[in-house]
Amino acid sequence: xxxxxxxxxxxxxxxxxxxxxxxxxxxxxxxxxxxxxxxxxxxxxxxxxxxxxxxxxxxxxxxxxxxxxxxxxxxxxxxxxxxxxxxxxxxxxxxxxxxxxxxxxxxxxxxxxxxxxxxxxxxxxxxxxxxxxxxxxxxxxxxxxxxxxxxxxxxxxxxxxxxxxxxxxxxxxxxxxxxxxxxxxxxxxxxxxxxxxxxxxxxxxxxxxxxxxxxxxxxxxxxxxxxxxxxxxxxxxxxxxxxxxxxxxxx
Length: 251
Hints:
CATH superfamily: NAD(P)-binding Rossmann-like Domain
Number of strands: 7
Oligomer: single chain
Number of domains: 1
CATH class: Alpha Beta
Shape: globular
Number of helices: 8
Strand order of the largest sheet: 3-2-1-4-5-6-7
Distance between the termini: 34 Å
CATH architecture: 3-Layer(aba) Sandwich
């Protein structure tokens, strides 16, 4: 990449993908592996995550699955230590672990449901950055990407989810400038609706075939993963603190 005078040399980098067992996390893990990254999956979906690891290994990269509840700081901390002990580094963090929670009016959302959504969608992202970024700072290079959502603008039947994604947007904005001099960039991706289990399980096949948006379709997870891969790459030399829209249209 001689044409990018500020790009880092290509190295055998290690990526950590939370929620890498399926959906956007799986698509991202495989896309990173295609670019020569070794990938560790933090997830609680054992069967799906092990399949992702097999597919990573089929691309001639190293894959690893560690069962992690991202809402538990001690579990993330222990898993990160295991990766560092085994592979010596973590250069890339992609936070895809998240849940939608209940789609119900505000007064039907219990405090327990609110806490559950926030603990996974916000605490999990916060904890992952706290435990992994110091290893990036030591190596003077790192890339972090977290999935947010247009629901951050407000959705009356998804208040806990909306609040969690607004918090993630703020976290990306807050951390985007924190370690620029150390070569660590923090960004977000807002995918609109991609054809993952979170979306396909909630809509009829007729709606999914023609959702009424300008593109006339929702995205494949692989299309979102293309953008995530760029933000995590050495080719990204000047983007940090941004949330990139991958919605297929404006608005």
